[in-house]
């Protein structure tokens, strides 16, 4: 049975700039904000839009074979709604998830402030009480790093 966890965060950047970094420029942004974790991202299916599949090459070592694939399962620019589903990789295997989908909903609060609603839907065989926290932690870090990047650019 699918479970979900939700979080909300207000960031000090405008909705357009955050949307661009999160949804439109994810291929170039991920290695910048997580250089120790993500070496590169490439679109291996599609055009970078809805239903595209992204290949994340992980680790600093260019010879590393660690990778993760994710699919853009929602991309609604008019609603600032973006969702990624992990197809395979460490986000599933290291944490014992059989499925993991993250949805971001951005809402403008003011010209320089955005509300980010985050939802992670996951399946796991583990019955640990903190699986929701484990699923949400990378998502919260991602939003924090995006905010920092946008503020610095």
Q: How would you characterize this protein structure?
A:
β2 and β3 form a beta hairpin. The chain has a 7-stranded antiparallel beta sheet. It has 153 residues and is an alpha+beta fold. The mean pLDDT is 93. The chain is globular and about 40 Å long. 29% of the residues lie in helices and 44% in strands. The protein has helices at 15-24, 26-33, 90-93, 131-152; strands spanning 3-11, 38-45, 53-58, 67-76, 81-88, 97-110, 113-124. It is built from 4 helices and 7 strands, in the order βααββββαββα. It has one domain (3-152): 2-Layer Sandwich (Alpha-D-Glucose-1,6-Bisphosphate, Chain A, domain 4), CATH 3.30.530.
Helix fraction bin: 25-40%
The proportion of strand residues reads 35-45%
* Record field, number of beta strands: 7
Give the C-level CATH assignment. Answer: Alpha Beta
For the sheet with most strands, the description reads:
7 strands, antiparallel
For this structure, what is the CATH homologous superfamily? START domain
CATH topology: Alpha-D-Glucose-1,6-Bisphosphate, Chain A, domain 4
Enumerate how many helices there are, as a single number: 4
The CATH architecture assignment turns out to be: 2-Layer Sandwich
Keywords:
153 residues, alpha+beta, Alpha-D-Glucose-1,6-Bisphosphate, Chain A, domain 4, 4 helices
Write the layout of secondary structure elements.
Layout: E1 3-11, H1 15-24, H2 26-33, E2 38-45, E3 53-58, E4 67-76, E5 81-88, H3 90-93, E6 97-110, E7 113-124, H4 131-152
Antiparallel strand pairs: 1-7, 2-3, 3-4, 4-5, 5-6, 6-7
């Amino acid at each position: 049975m699918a479970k979900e966890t939700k979080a909300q965060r207000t960031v000090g950047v405008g909705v357009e700039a955050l949307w661009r970094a999160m949804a439109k420029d994810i291929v170039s942004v991920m290695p910048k904000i997580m250089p120790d974790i993500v070496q590169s991202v490439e679109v291996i299916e599609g055009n970078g839009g809805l239903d595209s599949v992204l290949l994340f090459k992980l680790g600093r070592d260019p010879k590393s074979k660690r990778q993760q694939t994710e699919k853009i399962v929602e991309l609604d620019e008019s609603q600032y709604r973006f969702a990624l589903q992990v197809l395979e990789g460490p986000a599933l295997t290291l944490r014992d998830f059989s499925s993991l989908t993250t949805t971001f909903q951005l809402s403008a609060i003011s010209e320089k402030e955005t509300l980010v609603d985050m939802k992670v839907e996951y399946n796991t065989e583990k019955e640990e009480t903190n699986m929701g926290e484990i699923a949400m932690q990378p998502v919260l870090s991602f939003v924090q790093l995006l905010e920092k990047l946008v503020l610095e650019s």
